[in-house]
Design goal:
The protein is α+β, with helices and mostly antiparallel strands. The chain contains 7 helices and 9 strands; from the N terminus they run βαββαββαββαβαβαα. The protein has helices spanning 17-25, 80-84, 110-114, 154-158, 169-182, 223-231, 234-265; strands at 3-8, 52-60, 63-71, 90-92, 98-100, 121-122, 131-132, 164-168, 201-204. It has a 3-stranded mixed sheet, covered by helices on one side. Strands 2-3 form a two-stranded antiparallel ribbon. The radius of gyration is 26 Å and the shape is elongated.
């Protein structure tokens, strides 16, 4: 049973309680605020910040309104980061979270290139840097585990406005469309339902998602399938190329032997 979170942006007041809870639960250090757009801080996720609440003034019904959006790893159903990681440091779990195992990481950062949402970050300030991202409060070793015990992530649990709801993906999608179909304010779109094959974090909103930089133009096809389209030719190419090189080797060797034999018959040293 895969678990998901539904985020209703119309209910968020930008209090950042979720952001603080994430820092506390994961023992992440605080940083000196660096503001973006006057209220958003830190301006983006980094090695010590797994989630950020963005503040934006947007146009709605010809009026300026303020809206807020919590962003973090979306925990794709078929994650490109895990597909790109040959060391298996990123793995998709049956419960829904995409979990990072630092002891397996070799620091190649292919996951950062593969993620369509730019989520995994590198600990640039550390002596021995690793990749960092939201773990969905899932910890196989138990120290920070919540979702593994059926509990909501710390950010969801601490929200005072019920902006987020935790449950199975089927339940969250049903709730999302119930709200959309019963209230004309909402945009007819559940972000995360189909993007890159679907994610375990789902969003609904009354203003365009693009205001917060959400990528709504990504493919609905799971990205690892594109990798398969190319990787399935790898073995035939290796066999063909290897056979060609072997044939050229024996051809060249045979030709040199013939030249030596002819030279020997003519009394010429080669």
């Amino acid at each position: 049973m895969t678990m998901s979170v539904l985020v209703d942006l119309t209910r968020c007041t930008g209090c950042k309680a979720c952001q603080t809870a994430c820092k506390q639960w994961n023992d992440l250090p605080g940083i000196i605020p660096e503001f973006d757009n006057n209220l958003t801080f830190p301006p983006k996720m980094d090695g010590n910040t797994y989630t950020v609440v963005q503040h934006r003034v947007v146009k709605k019904d010809n009026q300026d309104v303020m809206r807020f959006a919590k962003t973090q790893c979306l925990h794709c159903l078929e994650p490109a980061c895990a597909s790109a990681c040959f060391a298996k440091a990123l793995q998709k779990t049956p419960e829904g979270p995409v979990v990072y195992y630092p002891h397996l990481c070799v620091g190649c950062r292919y996951c950062m290139l593969a993620c369509p949402f730019g989520v995994p970050k590198f600990e640039w300030d550390e002596v021995f840097p690793l990749v960092a991202k939201c773990q969905f409060c899932f910890d196989p070793e138990g120290t920070y585990d919540r979702t593994g015990h059926g509990q909501a992530p710390a950010c969801v649990d601490t929200c005072p406005n019920q902006t987020m709801m935790f449950g199975t993906r089927e339940e969250m999608l049903k709730e999302a469309w119930n709200r959309i179909n019963s209230d004309s304010r909402y945009i007819k779109h559940v972000f995360g339902e189909k993007e890159v094959g679907g994610t375990n974090w789902l969003y609904i909103s009354d203003v365009p998602f693009e205001n917060f930089g959400f990528k709504t133009d990504v493919t609905q096809r799971p990205l690892p399938e594109y990798t398969y389209d190319f990787s399935k030719y790898t073995f035939p190419v290796i066999i063909t190329w290897g056979g060609l090189l072997t044939a050229m080797y024996f051809y060249t060797k045979r030709r040199n032997n013939i030249v030596k034999e002819d030279s020997h018959d003519q009394g010429i040293d080669v």
